[in-house]
Design a protein that fits this description.
The complex is a heterodimer of chains A (313) and B (263). Chain A is α/β, with parallel strands linked by helices and 313 residues long. In chain A, 38% of the residues lie in helices and 12% in strands. Classes of the chains: A alpha/beta (313), B alpha/beta (263).
């Protein structure tokens, strides 16, 4: 595992806006508000919107616009089986979002429900890796996703929960279907509550075991902002608000999957409990600034857009 | 409803969301002003002062300092001179040196209101009651309904906290329902929380009354829960049986009085 001083790398790769304005408080205010245009198109593979929970799409779009992000995959949040709002959003903002639906995969009619969503333009489905269908084929819902040309967005527990023989067998059952391991394969801290910080970070050994799923060519990994897997500094530090050293999880993902199987997602609005939308993008972008621009274009756009293509609703 | 003031919002240049995000959420929810409360792990108040200057008349400024430093009272006095309206102090903080209450007295001397967070047990002991009486003219607002966080409502402990209503300088901030109730899974619409909602809001109202009660969104952490708009809407719905005048205090006037927007 490569370790390096992220502070150094980040300082060398500070965004053009900061360079132009210097590094004083005014520059911080400017860059916190809006980012300069990126050298490639950005596709955010993991955004949420909702009416009774999280925020309506207007909130999301304001954040995306400030961050210079045009496209994204609306990912239904766990427990919300009603996906109608996501389809409404796609109708209101055509060409901007793809849809990753969520449903109760344990219902007998889940495969038919999924087909109906696929027919309406959903490009992915979000499942917990332990979900099994009732009836004769426990993998019926997974095979249905494959049959209807949908990609899978997967989040279970911590990384160790993915590093199982059972999940490896499932993956091989649908070898043509992209399976995206969300949130660094589960190395995911939910962030700041009003009481303080949640403190569950996975061990790097467990992350490595989960990333070994990269041996299957249909497995991808989603990375988020650094705060998903790195502890904040207390008190807050600048320019990077993290305790050193930065956890090398992004390097590990890159080494295991490579840029064509790696995709960035903001996790907004959940990420507002951590570093927020703009910082989530800027920090991940700075961290990977030494990679060739073609690779960054894949990680921050091309890979996600290929796996979760935008369709007309 | 006009005149809504959000008594508990956060912003940062390097963490959570910039001030533009909050301004957008306030506009969409019809909230006129907000109290910017410094993040718990932050002691650099520059960005918050910038935000206040950029949106004149919109924000009150509740700062924080390094409480373990001997010069914290002097730093706080200087921040008050720059226009802070309040200071955020954890309930358990005591100053180094000869006077453990030095920072609390410095806040009172500088005419700053105190936004105070802690566990219920930090509030309901004799120690905190004595502290409150030491600075009888300083408003002390207990955040998160006195320690209702994480979707739990420790009602017995909270009732003990609310006995602090006997001191007229104690106020309570009420926040989003997600602080003391949990979302059902699968999601239930239009109201996603478990029923019955724990009676935290009624307990606060009965003890303190509307004039010592103020709603705060808890944004941006609440963005990862019911969101800004629902933080206001769900909480207001819970209080619809109160008079319009009471609601005007809870959702605006109390916060405006305790944490005034200063030039």
């Amino acid at each position: 595992v490569k370790r390096r001083s992220f502070l150094h790398a980040g300082a060398a790769a500070t965004t053009a806006a900061t360079l132009a304005l210097g590094d004083g408080p005014a520059a911080r205010a400017q860059t916190a508000g809006a980012l300069a245009p990126w050298p490639f198109e950005i596709f955010d593979v993991h955004v949420h919107a909702g009416l009774v929970w999280f925020s309506p799409v207007e909130t999301l779009i304001a954040e995306m616009d400030r961050a210079g992000v045009r496209y994204g995959a609306l990912t239904q949040f766990f427990g919300q089986y009603d996906n109608e709002y996501l389809f409404q959003i796609v109708r209101r903002f055509p060409g901007r979002f793809s849809i990753i639906v969520h449903l109760d995969g344990t219902r007998p009619d889940a495969p038919q429900t999924l087909k109906a969503y696929a027919d309406r333009g959903a490009t992915g489905v979000r499942l917990n890796p332990t979900v099994r269908s009732p009836g004769s084929d426990p993998l019926a819902i997974w095979k249905a996703a494959a049959q209807y040309g949908m990609s899978l967005s997967v989040l279970g527990g911590p990384p160790a929960s993915l590093a199982t023989d059972e999940f490896a067998q499932l993956i091989q059952t649908i070898p043509q279907t992209p399976i995206v391991l969300e949130h660094q394969a589960g190395d995911y801290n939910i962030g700041e509550s009003s009481a303080g910080y949640s403190s569950d970070y996975a061990s790097l050994d467990d992350v490595k075991k989960a990333f070994a799923l990269a041996r299957f060519p249909n497995v991808y990994v989603m990375i988020g902002g650094l705060a998903e897997f790195t502890k904040p500094a207390l008190p807050t530090t600048r320019p990077l608000p993290f305790a050193q050293p930065i956890s090398p999880v992004i390097d590990m993902a890159y080494d295991a999957f490579g840029p064509s199987r790696m995709m960035w997602g903001s996790d907004f609005p959940a990420s507002a409990r951590r570093e927020g939308y703009v910082n989530s993008l800027r920090e991940a972008m700075d961290y990977l600034s030494t990679k060739p621009v073609q690779e960054r274009a894949l990680i921050f756009g091309g890979t996600g857009r290929t796996v979760f293509p935008i369709k007309s609703a | 409803m006009r005149g809504i003031v959000d008594a508990q919002a956060y912003t940062s240049d390097v963490w959570s969301t910039p001030i533009e995000s909050l301004v957008g959420e306030m506009a969409r929810a019809g909230v006129e002003r907000a109290v910017l409360v410094q993040r718990a792990s932050e002691v650099d108040n520059d960005y918050q002062f910038q935000a206040v200057r950029r949106y004149p008349g919109r924000f009150a400024n509740v700062v924080a300092v390094s409480y373990d430093r001997p010069d914290a009272p002097a730093t706080l006095a200087a921040l008050a001179g720059r226009g802070a309206s309040g200071v955020r102090i954890p309930a358990s903080v005591r100053s180094p040196g000869s006077d453990p209450l030095a920072i609390w007295k410095a806040a009172a001397d500088a005419n700053l209101s105190i936004s105070c967070y802690g566990k219920p047990s930090d509030f309901y002991g004799d120690d905190f009651a004595q502290l409150v009486q030491t600075i009888p003219h300083a408003a002390i607002a207990l955040e998160h309904a006195g320690g209702a966080v994480g979707g739990n409502a420790p009602l017995d402990d909270l009732k003990k906290v609310y006995a602090l209503a006997r001191f007229p300088n104690v106020y309570v901030k009420i926040g989003p329902l997600s602080e003391f109730d949990r979302r059902l899974t699968p999601v239930v619409e239009p109201f996603p929380f478990a029923l019955p909602v724990p009676p935290v809001l009624d307990l606060v109202y009965d003890a303190f009354g509307a004039h010592r009660m103020m709603w705060g969104s808890g944004y941006p952490p609440v963005a990862g829960m019911e969101g800004y708009r629902n933080s206001l809407g769900y909480t207001m719905d819970q209080l619809m049986s109160k008079s319009a005048d009471d609601r005007a205090w809870i959702f605006g006037r109390t916060a405006a009085a305790v944490f005034p927007v200063r030039p």
